[in-house]
Amino acid sequence: MSAAIPPLGVRLPAEIKEKIKAAAVVNRRSMNAEIIVALERFYSNGNPKEKGPVSA
Fold this sequence. Notes:
- By secondary structure, this protein is mainly alpha-helical.
- Helix content is 50%, strand content 0%.
- The chain starts with 13 loop residues before the first helix and ends in a 12-residue tail after the last helix.
């Protein structure tokens, strides 16, 4: 990833954070990289319950 990408602070429940951390260790990735992979998979699979990007 590039330093040109601004950081995004996200609050996660402890249980989810631990799952991400464990998956990152198994997959030999940083937690950031693990989150990116999970989000890319989620959005590339076209979750039928999701209508599109979340608007703020």
